[in-house]
Amino acid sequence: MGKLLVVGSVAFDTVKTPFGEVEDVLGGSATYFSTAASFFTEVDLIAVVGEDFPEQHIEFLKGRGIDISGLERRSGKTFRWKGEYSYQLNEAQTLDTQLNVLETFRPKIPDHYRNPDLLFLGNIDPELQLDVLNQVKRPKLVACDTMNFWIGGKREALWKVLEKVDVLVINDGEARELGQDSNLVKVAQETLARGPKHLIIKRGEYGVLMFNEKHTFGAPAFPLEMVKDPTGAGDTFAGGFMGHLAATGDFSDAGLRRAIVFGSVMASFNVEAFSLDRLRDLDYKEVETRFREFKRLTHFEDLS
Amino acid sequence: MGKLLVVGSVAFDTVKTPFGEVEDVLGGSATYFSTAASFFTEVDLIAVVGEDFPEQHIEFLKGRGIDISGLERRSGKTFRWKGEYSYQLNEAQTLDTQLNVLETFRPKIPDHYRNPDLLFLGNIDPELQLDVLNQVKRPKLVACDTMNFWIGGKREALWKVLEKVDVLVINDGEARELGQDSNLVKVAQETLARGPKHLIIKRGEYGVLMFNEKHTFGAPAFPLEMVKDPTGAGDTFAGGFMGHLAATGDFSDAGLRRAIVFGSVMASFNVEAFSLDRLRDLDYKEVETRFREFKRLTHFEDLS
């Protein structure tokens, strides 16, 4: 089993959807990612929280077997995000962002974290992503996420990161902005020519596409009767994806496809409840059952 | 090989997309449908055109082996539609609709059409769809399409149609309006409880979903480097779907899944050029090749 390192955010989220609202619940990209990945492998977490971060959340992460010796606690308040979703649940409207301790965050990698097999660079400033890359021995596989804010504002630093990563995981709006084209096949050609070997484009309720030099893989999202809160779906997807890759060490096209389906499965559970609540009571048998359902969902017979 | 009957529109389309524009080109739901279906089976066509409909289009349809003895020619002008697409090619903005001879169209089924194996009721007034159903011996499989205009304006007549059909083929916006819910799984449950055995939801560039009592099937759209004009994609999908079903007579879940992929393949070709131009020079070998590519696109290994 490979060691997986993630750097990202730990947050308090206040979220309203047509199906309810929650205040200051556990959130953040590194939280969703590491919790999802912990179903498959050991995870080392790098993030920062403030003095207001309660012991119960620490205990939850520890309980998932996540190594939190890289979770820095600083004076000040924890990062806070407030968002709202309409009935069309695919995109959040951000109502408020308070960076707090995240504003001056400089990831420091503990010595025993410096030799990961896989590394996930969550959505933070591309300069910090580069900084993390410089602090570790080159992992077997590096993946990263980003967002429009950095694509627009730190384009050059971002391309420097992308030259060094194996997998870029972004949503379709971000992909179009990065590639400056509305056609995702052209965006993929452009992006793959400049860095990452694999481009994974998340499309929310519409599923996911993966492009690499030789192959394209497409999968729908798992159709759900109840989507309560899409917050964290992308990070949960990435966690399931990287967690499964860490567990198998199979980075072939077939291995990546399976990992994408595991990521989709984890995301499909996560959106069934607010915060990480569905992942709290999920067991691995349910994950495998839904993977098999996913196979039945997408299977059709080839021509003879 | 089963006989397939389609009723729908034949039109002149004026279309502008970011990749070009065309004026008064061949279009209409029955045109796209029957041309796509003609790659798989014999098609009987019911539609109406005006005195302005040129011989070259008649010859094209005949050349595809389509029986056009049900193509009524009336005094007046042919139905005209004018639309425009932005870079986000998923939805057209209708600029002008001139019903012309379609306004007083009452489908009359020639005697030798009255015993079809499969029937597709294209997007026309639900009362006319009922009228067509009453004029034929109950086919082995009936599918229909509709649109928001009828869902809003002739809801009761539409439900009467849906009670009598096996497959409803609509897009996701229409599905949400029909089921009065934003969640497609709930829409499917509601719809299937009231009539059709299978609900197929077209999602444009995001692919397609099929729901029936026992199964759900999901497939992405084929990723294309060039989408020039999405006009007619939905009808081309339906034509490939029904044409393949007519050719095999296999209406099992597995048969329907394969037919959906053939429909997706035909639609993926159609959007590569304006009007039906890509279908004009397409041969069946290319259809099979893309079907196999579609299998590679979506395949992943199941758990052992």
UniProtKB/TrEMBL annotation, chains A, B:
Keywords: Kinase, Transferase. Coiled coil: none annotated. Residues 18-274 form the Carbohydrate kinase PfkB domain. GO terms for molecular function: kinase activity. It holds the Pfam family PfkB. PANTHER family: RIBOKINASE, SUGAR KINASE. This is PfkB family carbohydrate kinase. It comes from Candidatus Nitronereus thalassa. The lineage of its organism: Bacteria, Pseudomonadati, Nitrospirota, Nitrospiria, Nitrospirales.
